[in-house]
Amino acid sequence: MTSTQHPQDPTSALRHEAGASRGARIIGTGSDLPEEIRTNFDLARTLDTSDEWIRSRTGIGARRIAAKGDKTSDMARRASQRALEASGLTGRDLDMIVVATVTPDRPLPSTASLIHHQLGARTDCAAFDVAAACGGFCYGLTLARAQIESGLARYVLVIGVELLSRIVDWTDRGTCVLFGDGAGAVVVGPTDASSTGRVLATALGVDGSLTESLTIVAGGSEEPPSDEAIAAKRHLVRMNGQEVFKAAVRYLSEVSARSLTQCGLTPDQIDWVVPHQANQRILEAVGDRLGIPTSRMVLNLERYGNTSSASIPIALDEAVRGGVIKPGQHLLFCALGAGVAFGSAVVRW
Ligand code: COA
After folding, report:
1. Residue 1 has pLDDT above 80, yes or no
2. Is this prediction's pTM over 0.85?
3. What is the CATH number that goes with domain 199-348?
4. CA nearest 202: which of 255, 248, 249, 251?
């Protein structure tokens, strides 16, 4: 050991031991969903909509709604504890915590800082939020992979969590029917002899010309909170559904193809797509383009709707714990959301 390496610094030990050739693997998954179920029929009681319209346009039948008083960090903590338990680690083992969310508890500090404290992480464990909307989990996983492969970190916790029910306009039938609350988390660590869960490829991207298609106008520095902003509901989600739909079909296909090319796999070698759960019709169109039928997709949007950055880790956790995903199978993750920011990953389970 050189004099510049601290004996208790796990990252320097890792750099020394493995260099940059080490891979990254998902070693534990967890999720948390609120108990309250709000069905399409429930929405149709107060809104000019119907179960038939929502199901046929989106595939969504219900969504979960966080209890009053429950915060984003509460769901994130519970999902993280389950992921840590599955990985056999504790908060003290973590070198980095990445929280993908657009619904932080507060603008300051980061939700990751709150989780850091609640999980008892070390003070030399980094923690920060990533704002890439529904694409956020793929961004977090890419960061985790890079940190671990470069030897800068050994264990990274990636959380996707959203409390969207507090930022949607419950009188706008074009948006509120789509979204739900929930959290999912994965622990990413270095590959070992078994190498299950290895992240084989990741790809990211943004089309910044579409920033207006899914946005919250007020509440930031452009338009600070005000009575007028609230009266005009500019602090709530606004969306051009058709623009987002077209972008999703195009970029989810493209970014998935980039990950597949990166690791030299073809679509027929993918056992399961674990996609961002936005809309059944979007996924059918992406499946057509990639040549992967929806029968090979892990889908839960009928039960949970669109939980943004949480949707992939929730679906992954359910499919892993349910025995749907089996060791050795190839998984493709893909997600797109506001920004429009998108990403994908290929994992060998
Ligand atoms: N119930 C009943 N009618 C509804 C409705 C609802 N929940 N939402 C919209 N409509 C109405 C519209 O008002 C419109 O009525 P009009 O013709 O009288 O004006 C009609 O349905 C068609 O609206 P349109 O927006 O063209 O519908 P669409 O076929 O594009 O479907 C979405 C709307 C939102 C379902 C669809 O655009 C979509 O899923 N886009 C992607 C959104 C998404 O996934 N965003 C998150 C990405 S992370």
Report:
1. no
2. yes
3. 3.40.47.10
4. 255
